[in-house]
């Protein structure tokens, strides 16, 4: 059995659909907080298990001996490590054959604050003694393209990335990598630094948005405190704004650049191109 936690999230849905193209539905299970959101999969024969990372008691019976498990990282920054720890403990008790985890770039060495919880999770997984696979997903195109509306409205993309290059890929690219690891062999105790094939600066991103939309959009670089303040001004909590601004500072230092092409080799195709990601986002508006 292959079990995907957090399956109804944006990444998880791509993973489950990818699995269903490769294995029978009765060999796939999803562990989700709201089973109602997974009823379409249940109708197709997927097992649906109600699980909440924050309620460890719900994890009893979520996994079985010999399962392959994908732990998709939680989205509550600052609360993720205890949530992940509960999943790790449940997986250990069950005796799963592989625990794959969606981590972050260079998790063991990165200076980006957002990565800290991922590093701690990786260390906990290693300490558990379970066979593991760390899928260190780079930045997603969607981190940028999901915010196209204000960029087009105001003609500005803001950040603190300077001329740093980010090796982004799409959610589907990363999901396909997870599917390969969960359905393939030889991935035990492997660390995969995953990223897009071609890196770009935020200036280049803004230029591509301009080219395809026909509206002038420019990248405006701000000092980290000013970028954080700008994020707060549009409604983000201060803590989260500080984390995002810090990540941009890391981008400026090269911490989100990766030219290894590990992702494209793993999925057997080129990763999504910047022009295609922008075009798809504009079409979806």
Automatic annotation (TrEMBL):
Regions crossing the membrane: none
Residue ranges occupied by any NmrA-like domain in the UniProt entry: 2-253
UniProt xrefs under Pfam families: NmrA (PF05368)
InterPro entries: NAD(P)-bd_dom_sf, NmrA-like, NmrA-type_oxidoreductase
Name assigned to this protein: SDR family oxidoreductase
Organism encoding this protein: Corallococcus terminator
């Amino acid at each position: 059995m292959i079990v995907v936690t957090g399956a109804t999230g944006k990444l998880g849905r791509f993973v489950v659909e990818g699995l269903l193209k490769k294995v029978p539905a009765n060999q796939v299970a999803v562990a989700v907080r709201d089973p109602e959101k997974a009823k379409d999969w249940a109708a197709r024969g997927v097992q649906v298990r109600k699980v909440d990372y924050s309620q460890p008691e719900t994890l009893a019976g979520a996994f079985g001996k010999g399962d392959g498990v994908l732990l998709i990282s939680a989205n509550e920054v600052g609360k993720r490590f205890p949530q992940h720890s509960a999943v790790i403990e449940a997986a250990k008790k069950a005796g799963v054959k592989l625990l794959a985890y969606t981590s972050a770039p260079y998790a063991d060495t990165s200076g980006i604050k957002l990565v800290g919880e991922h590093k701690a999770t990786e260390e906990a997984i290693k300490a558990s003694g379970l066979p593991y696979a760390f899928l260190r997903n780079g930045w997603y195109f969607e981190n940028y393209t999901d915010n196209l509306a204000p960029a087009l409205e105001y003609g500005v993309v803001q950040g603190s990335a300077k001329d740093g290059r980010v090796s982004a890929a799409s959610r589907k690219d990363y999901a396909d990598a997870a599917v390969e690891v969960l359905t393939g062999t030889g991935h035990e105790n492997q660390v995969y630094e995953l990223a897009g094939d071609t890196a770009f600066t935020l200036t280049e991103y803004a230029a591509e948005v301009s080219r395809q939309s026909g509206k002038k959009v420019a990248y405006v670089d701000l000092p980290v405190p000013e970028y954080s303040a700008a994020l707060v001004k549009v409604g983000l909590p201060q803590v989260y704004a500080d984390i995002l601004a810090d990540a941009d500072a890391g981008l400026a230092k090269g911490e989100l650049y990766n030219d290894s092409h590990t992702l494209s080799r793993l999925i057997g195709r080129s990763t999504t191109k910047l022009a295609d990601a922008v075009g798809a986002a504009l079409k979806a508006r």
